[in-house]
Amino acid sequence: METQPEIDKSSVTSLIEHWSQLNLEDRKEYFNQLLRTDAEELFLNLKAPYQYELLSELSPLEKRSWIRLLAPDDSADLFQLFPLEQRQEALLLLDSQTRHEVIGLLAYAEDDAGGLMNPRYIRLRPEMTVEEAIRYIRAQARNPIEIIYYAYVLDFEQKLKGVVSFRDLFLAPPDRVIQTIMKTDLIFLRDNVDQEEVSRQFSRYDLLALPVLDQNDHMKGIVTVDDIVSVVEEEATEDIQKLGGTQALDAPYLKISFIDMIKKRGVWLTILFVGELFTASAMSYFEYEISKAVVLTLFIPLIISSGGNSGSQASSLIIRALALREVGLKDWWRVLIREVFTGLSLGALLGFIGMLRVVFWPIKDPVYLQHYVVIAITVSLSLVGVVLWGSLMGAMLPFLLRRVGVDPATASAPAVATLVDVTGLIIYFSVASVVLGGTLL
Amino acid sequence: METQPEIDKSSVTSLIEHWSQLNLEDRKEYFNQLLRTDAEELFLNLKAPYQYELLSELSPLEKRSWIRLLAPDDSADLFQLFPLEQRQEALLLLDSQTRHEVIGLLAYAEDDAGGLMNPRYIRLRPEMTVEEAIRYIRAQARNPIEIIYYAYVLDFEQKLKGVVSFRDLFLAPPDRVIQTIMKTDLIFLRDNVDQEEVSRQFSRYDLLALPVLDQNDHMKGIVTVDDIVSVVEEEATEDIQKLGGTQALDAPYLKISFIDMIKKRGVWLTILFVGELFTASAMSYFEYEISKAVVLTLFIPLIISSGGNSGSQASSLIIRALALREVGLKDWWRVLIREVFTGLSLGALLGFIGMLRVVFWPIKDPVYLQHYVVIAITVSLSLVGVVLWGSLMGAMLPFLLRRVGVDPATASAPAVATLVDVTGLIIYFSVASVVLGGTLL
Predict the structure, then answer these.
(1) CATH of the domain at B39
(2) Rounded to 5 degrees, what are φ and ψ at B194?
(3) Which of B10, B186, B300 sits opposite A7 (nearest CB)?
(4) Which end of chain A is more exposed for a tag (fewer CB within 10 A), N or C?
(5) In angstroms, what separates the C-alpha of A437 from chain B's closest C-alpha?
(6) Digit-coded pLDDT (tens) for B405-419
(7) Interface subset of A 60-79, CB within 8 angstroms of B
């Protein structure tokens, strides 16, 4: 350790960098030929699925030393990945205290606060002095505790009474009693809140760790902010995938099996397709108009897609605003009013461009040339109606879904577009019957 | 402070809870009538824009005590919001050391590592003993330093030589020299990397803080993970809004002005609309086929939307995978191969359902009834082609955009749908000319 450090050779970084470019077989080989210390650094910095990958073919005894490297919460994440029939056996590889803790963690759903938490944290008693507390922390530091910036003050019933930051400990005179310097204005998590709520609390309070309490106010562990960064990313990934009209993949794109990929995408694609089948019914309902004025069909894709696009804009804005709690259910009417004006303005904009298109870029068709003024009016008015309708549907659907307890992100761009397609056709042909009645129709 | 703490009255939480439900005017009033200590707790826990809101009407002297409550990085975030002409004056409210640090921070782009960092951190010298270090840290803790789990070891040139965690300090014998216990295998950020990269580093290494170095390896500050949670959320919000086919709003939905909302949505809606205008041109190119077989038009929305939906699925999956670095540019051909098989399978699925629709749910039209077998074949084959094409376009467009230096999230669901609409029509009518040539056409 006496060597002169070189900043630019950051070896963990380069280990991971190198490892991440290999395929599975080469990864195992690379891992096996590393120095033990390097291999350990690499292992500790990998996420659970990759750790599992590296361990999968090792003998139980070889597994033991790797698994024992991990903190209990990371260990629980890894055990979660073991098939149930192997999990019991693998748990025996842990020392009995850790095993006890890991089994406790495994009982929580993976994405609850309880599943994210670390059961090891620094406990103090209210009646300790600062000096005793510092000595006690120094002793506790010998265990692989996930030591962090705060120490938690518990009473004899394991109920949380206060929090002391290390800074407060350092600052206070050694003979002060912990009770008199601890913060009693506590922010905490219940063990059964889900990880979306956990990450919202962290983003709200900018804290490094939050204590987790069960329903009886007993302290069960802490969730640290470093685990939350990946949670926030995961949640965003799920939302983005749903917004694109897929079920959440729950695995990296290149890792998921072909069959799972087809299932996750096929289900929604089929649902949307069945919905879209109604466009054919809607159109057959207007077959008389179509056969009399085939020229109307030329603008069908233009009109329905404008409705779909404005709907997809509105739904993605509202879904995200709901997820970040920027708007709540009670704000639906404020959103509605905004979207009425937004939809009308955007519709007028597209209607105007559409009119220019019809007038200045004529299609060489005798019927068209003869009637282009009324066609222009039909197309423009339909665009205003369709864009308004799309914006309203896109904005209201997420509220409706949240209201009935469904994830608002289900109102994906494709889902909104499909809904708006059928109604867009009805709007278009209805406008056409009114405007063109007596001339073309 | 000697009162018995009550867990369920978590006053910061309830202060913020209450505050967040008020409108702007009521917020100011609520803030003014709070006890000073409560008001400070509330203020410290708000994000910069809300802090700015509360301060905006105070006199300079009143502002001073609030601004001085903040750590330099939070202070810089707040100053960023002041109009330029007021910023100089407001900076004078700070003590000269903090002012110096805040001006240094303001020089960085807000979303670089440099703009996120805190210039105050705990510095140690390599030749100190552990005992000296602990004494020194206790002295430093008197300043409002954003003390955290690590202390950084700098040489006389301010170059970073190593990192010691508090746990290491607590564990080591008091007479050991820092140099011999520090970690020299350093993970660090350059001051000019953007916040997306910063959050990637945090999510990769699960650390509480990372040191920031300039191009000459001088240590400039630290970025702490609690600031990163909001960054990750912001980045995801931008991506989700772009995916929905809007420009990133950069403001909560209910806060953005109506004009800005119209601009952010109108620009893309217009671009997409102009793109979609080509569908009318494409269709007029096939006017002969349409007039001979009007029945073909009934399936247009069904076919183009299936292409759009499969494209939107593929693009959202790939955009997210690129953002999380699950796939890199070099993986484009692996993705291409996956999408060929996925597109063919999904296309076959929809083609099969489409065929059932045509055969078992006939439209009452003499031409249709006579030719429904060939129509079913035309619709099915077109669906396979369009879904395959949509999947490929959706998956490849994000790669292409990244390659030419544009944010892949620009390949929004609506943008991909628009591209696929025009080509989908061409595929449909081309298949129709071949299959129906001699019978319907």
Answers:
(1) 1.25.60.10
(2) -85, 165
(3) B186
(4) N
(5) 20
(6) 888 888 788 888 888
(7) none
